Each structure stands twice: as structure tokens, then as C-alpha cells.
Amino acid sequence: MKKLSSVLMPIGQRKWQKVKGKGFGFCLSFLLFTFAFTGVLYAADILGEVKALPVVKSVIPPQVELLEARDIGSLYEIVIKDPERGKQIYYVTKDGAYLIAGGIINKDKVNLTQVRHDEITRVDVSKLPLKDAIVIKRGNGAKKLIMFDDVDCPFCKRAYDWLKGQTNYTLYLFFFPLDMHPHSAEKSVKILCGKNYESAIEKAEADQEIDTQKCEAGEKMLARHKAIGVGIGVDSTPLFITDTGTRIVGLQVLALESYLKN
């Protein structure tokens, strides 16, 4: 005589296969949609609550956009978009009395604010038109590094000089002349109009005269570079972007070295 379990199990399995085949996919899809939609509504509710808090209404000016808000326990975390400074993170007490600027560090010494800032400012590298960049390959070119550069920016000059001593990376360079450097745009156009980019960049970084003349194609490409930078919120130079989309703002040698060598 067969055991009862050996008779029942195949029947149960066959019934499960029927349910899975006919209705399970629909039920699972419906549940996932419901959870996602509820999450969106909940996030919208929190954002609405935070916008109504007294300190938010009085401190955050109208031109600053409040993008999102999260309940992180005893505080609300808010992400704003400042026209001049890009995305910024602040914290608000739940009674609406205080808005807090600064980093939150947990017991494991992790700066949670920095982690979150990296998340919200991450760049989708796959959408950057790297074909428009000046490409400089060092060694085997294995690591991809994107740089937004102002040729008259002192820290950009130091960064470019430091990069010359590194190897095994490919640099994708976009020009982003800042208003504080009135001759930077003209130099950038001349570089883009020439054939030997590296030589012209080194002359510009050394404050030497660039041999080539300005041209319409160079002006158009510089406008393209600036538009790409504005599109991802570049507001200072140098700015580096890794192949995972993480930003390295300024000449952070340790961060750059860690990325290029690991």
C-alpha cells in the first residue's frame, strides 16, 4: 500500500501548477502594483505634510523646489533643489519648529547624509554623450573617468597635472568655463578647434598662448559641453564622475586614487 503522502503530494503539486499557470501571475502583478501605488501615495502624503510645516514655509524660499521627503524616525529628511547649488539634503523636526543642516552619522561611523547625497546626485553615465568629450587614454585605459573642467580654474590645473602621473584610465573631458574666469571660454573654444587636444590643454593649463584660432565648430561644441554639464547640475569645477555615476567634487586625491587603483 502506498503512503498517504505519496498519493497526496503529486495532486497538490498539480493543483499548484494550475493555480500558478492561470491566476498566480495576475495575482502577483496586482499585489505588486497595489504595494507600489500605496508607496507613492504614502510618499506624497509625507511630502504634503512637510510642505505645510511652519519652518519649511518660512525658511525655504519659493524658488527652491522641495523634491521629496522621508520619515526617518524622529525627523523628516527632505531633498530640495536649489537653482544655484543643486540638490541638497536637510532635516526637519516633526513639530515643524526646526530645520537642520548637516550630516547624520550612525553608531557605525557611517555618514548617512553623504550616502544619501551620493544616491540622489548619482549620474546615469549611460546617458552621457561621451562621443562629444575629449578622450585621453593612459596605459590600458581600463578605468573610465569623466571630468568637467575649467582651464583657468586653479584646482582643475592641479587635478589635470595630478592625472598625468596616473595610469590605466580613459579620461572623458568636458569643458565647463565658469563666469569668474572670463578668458576660459575662449581658450576652451581654441582647444576644441585644434587637432592636438592634449598639447593645447597643457598650454592652457600653463597659461601659454594656444596656437589655434576660434572657429564655429569649436563654439558649438563648447555650448554642447556646457549644456551637458548644466543638465546634470554641474556648478563648480573640477567635477569628476566615476563609471558608476558617483560624483567626486573638487580635487579629492584620496577618492580619485582609490577609484583608479581599485
Give the arrangement of secondary structure elements:
Layout: H1 4-51, H2 54-59, E1 65-71, E2 75-82, E3 86-93, E4 99-100, H3 112-120, E5 134-138, E6 143-149, H4 154-163, E7 169-175, H5 184-193, H6 197-205, H7 216-231, E8 239-241, E9 247-249, H8 253-261
Helix pairs in contact: 5-6, 5-7
Provide tags for this entry:
262 residues; alpha+beta; Nuclear Transport Factor 2, Chain: A; Glutaredoxin; 2 domains; five-stranded mixed sheet; four-stranded antiparallel sheet; 8 helices; 45% helix; 19% strand; elongated; disordered N terminus
Describe this structure in words.
The structure is a single chain. The chain has 262 residues and is α+β, with helices and mostly antiparallel strands. The chain folds into two domains: 50-120, Disulphide bond isomerase, DsbC/G, N-terminal (Nuclear Transport Factor 2, Chain: A, Roll); 125-261, Glutaredoxin (3-Layer(aba) Sandwich). Helix content is 45%, strand content 19%. It is built from eight helices and nine strands. The strands form two sheets. The protein has a five-stranded mixed sheet with strand order 5-7-6-8-9, with helices on both faces. Strands 1-2-3-4 form a four-stranded antiparallel sheet. A hairpin with a 3-residue loop joins strand 1 and strand 2. Helix 5 runs antiparallel to helix 6 (197-205) and helix 5 packs across helix 7 (216-231).
